[in-house]
Each structure stands twice: as structure tokens, then as C-alpha cells.
Amino acid sequence: MRLAGPAITAVGITAVFGIAVALPIWGWPIAVAGAFVVVLGIRDVVQRRHAIIRNYPVVGHFRYLLESIGPELRQYIVTDNDAERPFSRDQRRWIYATAKEENDLFGFGTDNDVLAGSGYLVIRHSAFPAPPPPPSSPAGSDLHLVPLAKVLGAVRGRAGAFRPESVVNISSMSYGSLSGAAITALNEGARTAHVLHGTGEGGISPYHDRGGDLIWQLGTAYFGARDDEGNFSLDRFLTNVDRHRVKAIEIKLSQGAKPGLGGMLPGTKVTPEIAAIRHIPVGEDCKSPARHTAFSNVDEMLEFVELLAGESGLPVGIKSAVGQMAFWDELAERMATEDRGVDFITIDGGEGGTGAAPMVFADHMSLPFLQGFTSVYRVFAERGIHNDVVWFGSGRLGLPDRAVLAFALGVDGVNVAREAMLALGCIQAQKCHTGHCPVGVATQSRWLERGLDPTLKSVRVANYLIGLRKELLRVANAVGVEHPAEIVAEHLDLLDDDVGSVSVVERFSYKPDWGIPTMEQLAAVEGALLGS
What mean pLDDT, rounded, does the chain reach? Predict the structure, then answer.
């Protein structure tokens, strides 16, 4: 394979030279230009660093040319660095630079108009910052390991209880939604960065088995754990738990991209490989219903949770976007008065999601993360059980400022999805729902997928995850604490329209002991930070 590129190049040059000899002298410049294009095109096809160039040889270079003069174009013609959505140019630049281990600093001060509108986050630093962790410690090492402040599954005595090594983890994204190369790169990156990797509801594929620890997500179709009629199968569930690196189970009730809506995988996409993974017929439409069949209310859901935890020994949690609050009220009340309960809760913001969805569901269904998370957290905190649960947040929380605010409100860890896709090379083309992702991330096209080299991209994923942990540690130290979980609402303000500010405590009506783990939990995790 290494010799293929030079050999083809030699043939191409020889052919162009032969044509040039037959041309009059005035045609030689055209022949030279043609030879250059041939050589460049062959080089583009065989290189592996850039998916765009590999999938679109020669013309793909225009993307990087336009990107290089983007600041000038935006400054005088198009948009500024913060105008693009869902991720601005500055946000994407930080992720790309972090993933590539390039200069991720910004110069000449902020270009944000901090007084333009309400809600702008301000972090109140300490006059006496905490010292950074020593290089000999896990947190001070090149991996910048920052473990969770809580032990997942410890409160309910699960046999497989454990302390996740990272407060940043990869959110659930299915094989089928993403390409095999993308899932491979994510899992290998998860292994390198010591993070957990959510499988998505599409089941555990061979691409998830690259050494990274998994959170197996069970959706309404129970892919990988269903019988021939589509109902949950305990035997198949336990078989897959034993076969793979599953560390916890996440029951998906809904997701931020399309809460309250099921899904459909067209039969044309149900390949023999996907059919085997999901235990569905080849070539037939595969529907994920909007609700579960294994349970239909909170009481039955808790029975299902305890069944999975009891049989597997693993921590079991739920993932949901936030809509009507009656469900959360009943769940918290039962957990406060009964011996049953979930080990963790993942709150997905309505602005999050990698899945394709109708516009009204993507834009208007379920609460955004800040409002949704604080509403649910308050229900548990008022009953005094908020520290009996490990809280995860997702929905554009893979940027340092948004993650810091989430920690101050009470999350124990953040799950990143689209930010991890950007680290893979996603250019925010927003073609995920078409199957024509130009960089091979969200597609099943073999031609487009070949542009994404998992070996190289997994390194970038790991760099991004480690870089985000490093930033969270730096912010924590700047406000005078050692761990991101110790950042509390008092450390943050939100600017308002009247050239004033309101503390996050006041904005969300938090009480003094909300948003922070117990003293015992913090003491244990500070020891883990230092490796003691």
C-alpha cells in the first residue's frame, strides 16, 4: 500500500510527459500544470490526515484556503466569530486546536460584546488561587486525570460500583448514526484518555470494542438485548454484558434531539452487520418506538432498574430530556422513601443532540439544559437525596465555560457528543441526516468513511478530552478550589440587561448545600486527584 501512491504518481507523470512531448512548446505549461494536478490528486487520495482532502482530492484544498482567509471574509463581508450556530467559529477553533495540540490561545482580548445581552457568564476568580496539582499526581500528569467526586453505584451497594476516572466522558452515539470508523476512533480515544464511551441505543458494535470502557445505552427497541419479537431479553442482555467492557447501563427515556419521538432506520440501511448487532431482520425497516415496553410507569421502571442491577451487578441509570415534571416528582419521592432507585441520572438539554429530528422537535421540544437540569436537581435536593445520585449533563457542555456552569449547578460529570465529533474532523456541515457527511463521521458511505482514519483521529479525540479536563482544572484552581465539583454557584455571575449582574445562586434559587458533593465525597476525590 505504501508503494501504491508513488507507483501511480510515476505512471501519471510519465503519461503527462508523453503528452507534453507530442505538444508544441506553447502547450508545455499546460502539461506541467496538468502534471501538478495529477500528482496533487494522487497524494490527496493516499494521505490520511485530512478526510475532506482524501474524499475530495484537489478541490478539498479550497476548504482550507477559505478557512485561512475566513477572519478577513467574516470581518468585512459575512459574520463575526460568534455568529455561527450551533457552535461558533471561536468554539470550533478551540476544539480543533486542542484536538491537534496546536496553539489554543486567543489574543487581543475578548471579541465578545459582554454587555450586549443578558446571560453572559462571568467566573469570579480568587485572590489566592489554589496551587496546580504536582506533575507526579494523576491530575498533574499529561493525562490530567480528574475523577468523579462520587462513586457510581456505591449508594445502592452495586457489586460493580466504581469511581469513573474522568469528569468528561463521551455521550451516547450509535453505530449506524455514525460510521464504523468514527465509532472506532471515539472508542480508541476513550481508551487513551481514560473516559467512558456511551454506545447509543443502536447496541454494542465491533467498533465499540477497541479497548474503551462502555456505558451501554438501552433504548426503547432494546437493540442487542431483544428477543425475536422486539421485547427485552434478559438472557441476551447478560450475554452482552459478559462479552464486552460494559461498566454501567443507561436506560434512555428520551434525548434532547427529539424527545417524545421514536426513530426509524430504513430497510435500505439495515445491512447484515447492523442486523446482527441489533438482532433485527436484514433489509427491513427498523422502528424504535417512542416509549418502552418493559415498563409503563415509574414503579415498573424502578423494578426494571433493580432487575438489571441485580442480575448484572452494574450501576444502572436513566437518560432523559426534561418536559413535564410529574415524572421527576414521583421518582424523587419513591427514591426518598423506598429502597429502590437509579444510580445516576443524565439530563440532556433540549439544545443538544446528534440525531436527526423534525424541526419543531429540534427547536421547541423539552427544556434547555440549564432550566431542565436545575428543575430536576431541585426536586431531588428538596428531599435531601441529591447526593445519593450521580449527575451527568449533556447538551453543548463540551466547552469549558458551559461545563463550569454545569458543575456549579450540581453535575458530577459532562458527556460530550458533537464536540467529540468536531474533534474527529466534523466541519459542522449539518448533513448528518442525509448520510452524506463530507468527512465520513455521520455516514454509512464506504467512500466517505474511508476519508476518516481512525488511528489518527482517535489521537485527536483523546487530545480534546484531556484538554477539556485540563481547562476545567485550571478554572477550578483559579477560583480557589482543587476539583471542578467544588466550583459552586457563588463563584459565578450572569450579566443582565441593566449593566448589572445576578449570581447564579440567586438566578436559580439555590440553597447553600446545593450543587456540591458531601464533604466526605470531596475528601475522597481530592485524594484520588493526587493519587493518594
Answer: 87
